[in-house]
Write a sequence for this structure.
């Protein structure tokens, strides 16, 4: 993916992934009145609004740069759900996540606690997989929609990189 198509795909991916993570979490904070989260002892419904107002812009900006890096490294998609592309992104994010955990453990001098950190890192990676997959699928959809618009308007197929005079409509 290149140029402004990559930019639009990264924006779409970041918005979809952040809202797929923040909205359920905000609903949980708004509707839950038990004692699961002991540190958040004050049970008011404004906690969900605080999460949406304060956390969401930072997450969208962070996710935009992450998806910009991930989508620029992947090949241009041919369809919305590409399992190979999703697995490659999971491997990239997983390796960077675990190397970050190892770096923090190494700099802290607590490499002997790496097995415990690895366990909690796996749990955190599993929690990040759903927004990651939603973001990649959303980025692929935006890429294919923009290329369909380019084909319909100019007769140019970005997927193959050539003029298509024989076809009257988009191959998508």
């Amino acid at each position: 993916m290149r140029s402004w198509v990559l930019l639009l795909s990264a924006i779409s991916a970041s918005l979809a992934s952040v809202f797929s993570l923040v909205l359920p979490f905000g609903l949980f904070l708004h509707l839950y009145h038990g004692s699961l989260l002991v540190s958040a002892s004050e049970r008011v419904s404004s906690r969900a609004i605080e999460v949406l107002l304060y956390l969401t812009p930072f997450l969208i900006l962070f996710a935009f740069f992450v998806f910009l890096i991930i989508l620029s490294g992947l090949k241009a998609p041919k369809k919305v759900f590409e399992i190979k592309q999703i697995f490659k992104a999971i491997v990239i994010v997983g390796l960077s996540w675990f190397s970050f955990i190892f770096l923090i453990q190494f700099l802290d001098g607590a490499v002997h606690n790496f097995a415990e950190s690895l366990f909690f890192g796996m749990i955190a990676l599993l929690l990040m997989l759903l927004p990651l997959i939603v973001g990649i699928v959303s980025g692929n959809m935006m890429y294919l929609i923009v290329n369909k618009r380019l084909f319909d308007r100019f007769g140019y197929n970005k997927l193959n990189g050539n003029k298509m005079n024989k076809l009257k409509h988009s191959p998508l």
Summary: The helical segments are 3-31, 46-73, 83-108, 114-154. Residues 3-163 form one domain. The longest strand covers residues 156-157. Confidence is low (pLDDT under 50) at residues 164-172.
